[in-house]
Amino acid sequence: MDAFQIKDQLLSDFKVQGHFPNQQNEEEISTFKCLFTFTVIVCFTPLFTYFTLFSRIGFKLYVGLSCAYLSMATRYKIQLMPLTNYVHAFYNRKKQKNA
Q1: What is the C-alpha to C-alpha distance for residues 26 and 32, in angstroms, rounded to an integer?
Q2: Transmembrane region positions (predicted)?
Q3: Residue 99 and residue 90: Cα distance in Å, rounded?
Q4: C-alpha separations of 87 from 61, 83, 91 in Å
Q5: In 3D, which of 70, 90, 88 has the Cα closest to residue 80?
Q6: Are residues 14 and 20 in contact, defined by beta-carbon separation less than 8 angstroms?
Q7: Range with the largest mean pLDDT of 23-37, 40-54, 81-95
Q8: 3-state SS class at 73
Q9: Integer Cα distance of 75 and 95 in angstroms
Q10: In the predicted model, is pLDDT for residue 38 greater than 80?
Q11: Quick one: average pLDDT of 73-97?
């Protein structure tokens, strides 16, 4: 069966049953975590906006380069490895040299 037929079957099942098959329950999101995240975002957004508009050229350059990098990474689907992967690779390489 090709992907289109599988998706069509899932959609038909959804219309009949009212949910997708093998649907799992989602965890409740903590109110504290949501409020904390909201507060952090609301506090940092004006701070960084202020730095972008009224600071020296260094921060403006950083923001501009960050925007350029993110737009190129999004356009060309560039995905860098997380920093922890580099640390593990460095540690394992060092460990192998000693063995």
Answers
A1: 18
A2: 34-53
A3: 15
A4: 28, 6, 6
A5: 70
A6: yes
A7: 40-54
A8: helix
A9: 38
A10: yes
A11: 80
Whether 89 shows a pLDDT value over 90: the answer reads: no
pLDDT of residue 62: 87
Q: Which residue has the higher pLDDT, 86 or 95?
A: 86
Q: Which amino acid is at 41?
A: I
Rg (CA), the chain: 23
Residues in the chain: 99
More confident residue, 63 or 79: 63
Q: With left for phi above 0 and alpha for psi between -120 and 50, is residue 25 left, alpha or beta? A: beta
Can you tell me the distance from the alpha carbon of 13 to that of 4, in angstroms, rounded to the nearest whole number? 14
Domain boundaries, the chain: 30-98
Of 3, 23, 28, nearest in space to 13 by CA:
23
| Alpha carbons 66 and 58: distance in angstroms, whole number | 12
60 contacts 52 by C-beta, under 8 angstroms: yes
